[in-house]
Amino acid sequence: MAETTSNRDIAAFISRIMNINATLPGMGGASAGITGTTSPAAPTVDRLKKVVIEFATECRKNPQSNTAGRLAEEAEGLLSVLQSMSVISGSDCDNLVLILHGLRHTDS
Predict the structure, then answer these.
(1) Residue 86, by phi and psi: left (phi above 0), alpha (psi -120 to 50) or beta?
(2) C-beta of residue 56 within 8 angstroms of C-beta of residue 13
(3) Which parts of 8-67 are beta strand (E)?
(4) What's the pLDDT tens digit per position in 2-38?
(5) What is the separation, in whole angstroms, between the first and last Cα of the chain?
């Protein structure tokens, strides 16, 4: 039963990360079409999404592995970068980091 809860928690975390968008302020999703560019944060958001998918895969196998730890540290760094770029708020960053580390320490 704990594993089902853990998988649900991982899925909820992935969903929150996948909802992070790197758009230019005030332009919504139209920024690329109107200005011909994307936000400077776009590569960081894309990297975060990739790292979180890798983390989730590793975390489902062994949440306390060195690989899961390395990926969690990278994700935390990317979240901090996105906070500094005003893509996510400080409270969102802190909350996501707490969830990220909580997933590593969940008993499965």
Answers:
(1) left
(2) yes
(3) none
(4) 444 488 999 999 999 999 988 755 555 555 555 555 6
(5) 9
- How many Cβ atoms sit within 10 Å of the Cβ of residue 45? 23
- 63: tokens are 């949440």
C-alpha–C-alpha distance, residues 96 and 99, integer Å: 5
CA 18 to chain centre: 7
> Is residue 26 classed as helix, strand or coil in its secondary structure?
coil
**Token couple for 81:** 């970068």
DSSP state of 27: T
pLDDT at 29: 53
Query: DSSP letter at 22?
Result: -
Q: What is the CA radius of gyration of the chain?
A: 15
DSSP state of 41: T
- Residue 96 CA, chain-centre distance (Å), reads 7
C-alpha 97, offset from chain centre: 9
Closest CA to 93 of 29, 43, 40, 20: 20
